[in-house]
C-alpha cells in the first residue's frame, strides 16, 4: 500500500488516507454569509465519491469587521449554526471529515457596512485603516473563540485558525506589516502573542479534546519578511499551546511559491517543521500527481497532502487518480 492511501490519526480524528481538500474560497454564501444551496451542492459534488479523508471548509469570517469578501461564509453569529449543520451533515454523509477554517481579514477586510474601517496591526501609508489597540484585540480574541464554539456546535470535526495569505494574524506575524512597538510587535515572540492568546481562548471555549489546526503563512519569501526559521519557532510554540495540526502555506507571497514551481513547492518548510514538532503537518502547493505526492510522503517531508486546484477544476479527478495509482 502506498503511503498516501494509508490512514493517519490526528488527535481523535481517524483519517482514512493522507489526502485533504484545502480551504478554497467559493463566494457562494448568501449575502449575510449564511449557508446557501450553492455551497451545499458544491461540497456535495467535491466529496460524493468518498475519496477525501478531510475537507477544510473555506475561510469564514468571525465578525463583520473581519469579512474578506461579499458572499463569504460566516461564523460570526449563533444564527449561522443551523445552516452550518447542513454542511457538516453532508460531509459526514459522504464519509468525509470536515474542519471549519475561521478568519479575520484585517487590512484586507471588506465589510458590508461602509462605515467599518479595515483594521490591522500598524498604520499603512496611503490607506485609511483602524490601528488595533488592546481593547480591539480582546474583542478579536473573543470573536475567534465564539466562532470556534459555533463550529463545534454545528458538528464539524475540528476548527482551523487562519494565519496565512496576508490576513490579520499573518499581518501580526510578519515584520513586513507589523511595525508595532508594544507587546504585539518587534520580536517574534511578540508577533505571535495574539496567536497564542487566540489559541488559549479557543481551547478554553471548545475543550481539550476538540481538534484545533492552524494554517500558517510560514515564510514570506521577501527581504525583511518571515523565514523558515521563524516558522519552526512559531510552530513549536503553537504545538505546546495545544494546536493539533500545522497546515502550511505561504505568507505575504500568497498561496504560491515565488520561485519554486515543482509539486509540493512548500515542502522545504514542512520538512523542517516535521523535524521540530511532534504534531502532523499538512503540505499544499501545486500537487497534480499522486505519485509525486506519495514520494514526498515517503521522504518524510510531510504527513498529509492538500490537493486543491486539481479537484476544484474537476470533481472526479481524485477518484480517477486513485484508481490509476492502484493499477
From TrEMBL:
What top-level branch of life does the organism fall under?
Bacteria
Q: Gene3D superfamilies in the record, alphabetically?
A: Aldolase class I
What is this organism's lineage? Bacteria, Bacillati, Bacillota, Clostridia, Eubacteriales
Give the source species.
Answer: Proteiniclasticum aestuarii
Name the chain's protein.
NADH:flavin oxidoreductase
Residues forming the NADH:flavin oxidoreductase/NADH oxidase N-terminal domain are 6-322
- GO terms for molecular function, please? FMN binding; NADP binding; NADPH dehydrogenase activity
InterPro entries, per database record: Aldolase_TIM (IPR013785), OxRdtase_FMN_N (IPR001155), YqjM-like (IPR044152)
PANTHER family linked:
NADPH DEHYDROGENASE C23G7.10C-RELATED (PTHR43303)
A Pfam family annotated for this UniProt entry: Oxidored_FMN
Cofactor(s) recorded for this entry are:
FMN
Print the keywords alphabetically: Flavoprotein, FMN, NADP, Oxidoreductase
Amino acid at each position: 500500500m502506498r503511503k498516501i492511501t494509508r490512514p493517519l490519526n490526528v488527535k481523535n480524528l481517524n483519517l482514512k488516507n493522507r489526502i485533504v481538500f484545502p480551504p478554497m474560497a467559493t463566494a457562494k454564501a448568501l449575502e449575510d454569509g449564511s449557508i446557501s444551496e450553492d455551497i451545499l451542492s458544491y461540497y456535495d459534488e467535491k466529496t460524493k465519491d468518498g475519496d477525501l479523508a478531510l475537507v477544510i471548509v473555506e475561510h469564514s469570517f468571525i465578525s463583520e469587521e473581519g469579512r474578506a469578501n461579499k458572499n463569504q461564509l460566516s461564523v460570526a453569529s449563533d444564527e449561522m449554526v443551523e445552516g452550518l449543520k447542513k454542511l457538516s451533515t453532508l460531509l459526514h454523509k459522504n464519509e468525509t471529515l470536515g474542519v471549519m477554517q475561521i478568519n479575520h481579514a484585517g487590512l484586507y477586510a471588506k465589510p458590508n457596512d461602509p462605515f467599518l474601517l479595515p483594521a490591522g496591526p500598524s498604520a499603512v501609508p496611503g490607506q485609511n485603516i483602524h490601528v488595533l489597540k488592546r481593547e480591539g484585540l480582546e474583542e478579536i480574541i473573543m470573536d475567534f473563540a465564539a466562532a470556534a464554539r459555533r463550529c463545534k456546535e454545528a458538528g464539524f470535526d475540528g476548527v482551523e485558525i487562519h494565519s496565512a495569505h496576508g490576513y490579520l494574524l499573518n499581518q501580526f506575524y510578519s515584520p513586513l506589516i507589523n511595525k508595532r512597538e508594544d507587546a504585539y510587535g518587534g520580536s517574534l515572540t511578540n508577533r505571535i502573542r495574539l496567536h497564542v492568546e487566540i489559541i488559549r481562548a479557543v481551547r478554553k471555549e471548545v475543550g481539550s479534546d476538540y481538534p484545533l489546526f492552524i494554517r500558517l503563512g510560514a515564510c514570506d519569501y521577501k527581504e525583511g519578511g518571515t523565514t523558515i526559521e521563524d516558522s519552526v519557532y512559531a510552530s513549536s510554540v503553537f504545538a505546546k499551546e495545544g494546536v493539533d495540526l500545522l497546515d502550511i502555506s505561504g505568507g505575504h507571497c500568497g498561496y504560491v511559491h515565488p520561485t519554486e514551481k515543482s509539486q509540493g513547492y512548500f515542502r522545504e518548510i514542512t520538512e523542517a517543521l516535521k523535524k521540530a514538532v511532534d504534531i502532523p503537518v499538512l503540505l499544499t502547493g501545486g500537487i497534480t500527481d499522486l505519485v509525486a505526492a506519495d514520494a514526498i510522503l515517503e521522504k518524510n517531508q510531510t504527513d498529509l497532502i492538500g490537493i486543491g486546484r486539481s479537484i476544484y477544476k474537476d470533481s472526479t479527478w481524485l477518484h480517477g487518480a486513485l484508481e490509476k495509482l492502484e493499477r
